[in-house]
Each structure stands twice: as C-alpha cells, then as structure tokens.
Amino acid sequence: MSGMDEDRHKRAIAQNVSHETFARLETIAALLVKWQKTINLVAPSSLPDLWQRHIADSLQLLEHAPKDARRWVDLGSGGGFPGLVVAAVLAEREGAQMHLVESDTRKAAFLREAGRVANLPVQVHPQRIEAVAPALAPGTDVVSARALAPLPRLLDLAGPFLAAGALALFPKGRDAARELTEARKGWTLDVNEATSLSDPEGRILIIREARPLGSG
What we know:
Layout: H1 3-16, H2 19-35, H3 50-59, E1 71-75, H4 83-90, E2 97-101, H5 105-117, E3 122-125, H6 129-136, E4 142-145, H7 151-163, E5 167-172, H8 176-183, E6 187-195, E7 203-212
Parallel strand pairs: 1-2, 1-4, 2-3, 4-5
Antiparallel strand pairs: 5-7, 6-7
C-alpha cells in the first residue's frame, strides 16, 4: 500500500471518530512504532499499513458489538489490536473498561504504557487466559481475539465468557469457512459472519452462543 493510501485511510478514520478518540489513536500508533524497534508487536511488513491493517481492522468490531457494551475482554492482546483501539472509543463511555489479557510480559508492558499515555480505560492481565477467565467472565459484554488461535481453540479459551452471556467477536482471514467447519465438529454454534471492511477475503465471526457437542 502506498503512503498516499495509508493517509487516505487515516483521514477516513479521523472523519468517523471524535477528535478526542482520534488523538488517542494517534498516541497508540506512535507508541507502537516506537516500541516495535525493540519488541515485535506486529508483523514488520504490516507497519507501513498500520492505520488500515490494524487500526481500521480493529475499529470495525465496534459495529457488531452492543452499543451499550461497557465491559470488554480482549484475549491474547499482543500489540493491542483490537483491544487498545476499541478502548480508545470506549473511553467516551462512562464506566467502560477494557481488559487486556497478554501473557508475554514485554507485550504486557507495552499495553500498560499505551494505556497510561493515551489515558485509556484498560486493565492489563499478564497471565494465561485459562488462569483469568473464571474471574473475568461474569459480567463481560464482549470477548474478542485477533490472530490468536484457530477457531476450535478460541472457543475453548472463550468458552467461560460465552457461557456467562458475552458476545464473541473474532476477526478471521480467508480460512474462516474452514475453521467454522472444524469448530462445528465439536461445538453447536449460534454464529453470523460479516465481511471484513479492511480485507475483502476476511470475515468477522459474531458468536452469540457456543455449546460443546454432547453437553445437553
């Protein structure tokens, strides 16, 4: 993607969020570029396309989440996508909180610093997902995960959240259909698919319910 295309995507985002939210997104982007020099937060090849590949890709999840969602948990947050980006929007909702679960301590340190500098409503959990899920699941409105694991494994990890009534939002690439086929071998799913706005071959899986087969 050319620099001109990236500038166009950045301007489009600026027109669709508040001035305050855009300022928070710029802060996140600048910090990521700085930290990327020492920690591999995103694929280096994607850095020139940061606003399209990562920020716009993350923002679109909000279109599929409840408008009054206050408690959001992002699993395997890595470089902060979608968690930090969604938190930049949630900052304008009173009482909203983004929980970022990331077991890599260096990435968790980046997430904490980005949350502090951009003044985001985030809480970072530098632990394994299985360890924190039982405590975090009750009361969660949305659970998300991006580029973390194939769908069958994601359902295992997000199971406590779905069982507690959360909506799951999982961005997937061109293999979304294959992953759904595999997942249905072990799960009964209430799922819809939406075409990704940032990748025509990508899909967003919107899962309202997931029950292991044979669970009743």
